[in-house]
Amino acid sequence: xxxxxxxxxxxxxxxxxxxxxxxxxxxxxxxxxxxxxxxxxxxxxxxxxxxxxxxxxxxxxxxxxxxxxxxxxxxxxxxxxxxxxxxxxxxxxxxxx
Length: 97
Description:
Layout (H helix, E strand, L loop, with lengths): L3 H28 L7 E8 L2 E8 L6 H12 L4 E8 L11
Parallel strand pairs: 2-3
Antiparallel strand pairs: 1-2
Helix pairs in contact: 1-2
């Protein structure tokens, strides 16, 4: 019986963490919906920190909008850490059509 309580709490925390990750992924996908060519490379939620890495050409949408949407979806204040990795394509030589 003593082992069941910590195991139950651990299981509940894992379920909650997975739900927060899914909710955050949905928010980030919605945020990037109009940003052609930009996609999510990495997403992590750890307590109040939400770390997002995106890559692609151009600028992503408003960081403030993403922050507000994540705080709303997770129902708490969050710290957003957004990394933007620019992507530049160079094609040299050959027959490009």
